[in-house]
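Recap from last week: sequence in, structure out.
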Amino acid sequence: MNGLKETHRCDLHVIVCPYCNPAWGDELMADLREQPVNLHLPPCVAGNVGASRAHGFAMGESEYVSFADPDDRILPGAVAACIEALDADDSLGAVFTGEQVVNEDLKPIRGPDVAPYSHELHLASPRHVHGLIVMRRRLVEPLLEDLALLHAIPEWYLTLAIAKTAGLQRVPMLGRLWRWHPTQATRQLRKQATLERKAIARLFE
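Predicted C-alpha cells:
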C-alpha cells in the first residue's frame, strides 16, 4: 500500500500490520483514492493500537483527521459528507457515518447502524461512534499522549473526550463496511479491551 499526495483538508491514516490481508488492503487503497484525503501509513506498534493511532494522527497538518483499518471498505462520498457537516457547524468536534458490519466476503451480518448520535449510547458502548469518523485536529492533538497508553480501544476514549467539549453528529449515510473476521485486532486484544472499557467508562461516567 502506498501513500497518496498531500493536497486535501483531511489527513487519514491506515495502520498496516504484518497480519493484515494484502488483498483487503489493496481494496481499501482503491476506495481511498476516490476520497478527498491525504493518506498516511504509520508503522504498526505490535499489541498497541493507541500508540499506532497517536503516531498516525500526528502526521500531516490538515484541519481534519480520520483513520481507516486495512480490512475496512470506505464508501463513496463518505469523507466529503463528513467535511461538509463539520464546515457547516463550528460547534461540532467530530462527525461519523453509518456503518455496516459484514463478513469476510462483504456480506451483511446484521442491519446497518445509522441511528442518530446519542450521548447515552456513546457512554454505554465503543460501537456507537464507529463508522468513518472525521475529527478536528485541534481537538485531537492534545489527547495523543493519553491515546498512546490505550492498547485496544483508543478510539472510544478519543471520541468521548471530544464529546466533553464539543458536539458529535452522525451523518445519515453508510460510510464504512466493517469486516468482522477472526484475525482482526478487536478480537486479538479482547482481554485488554475489556480492562480498558471499564477504566474508560469510569473516567466519563
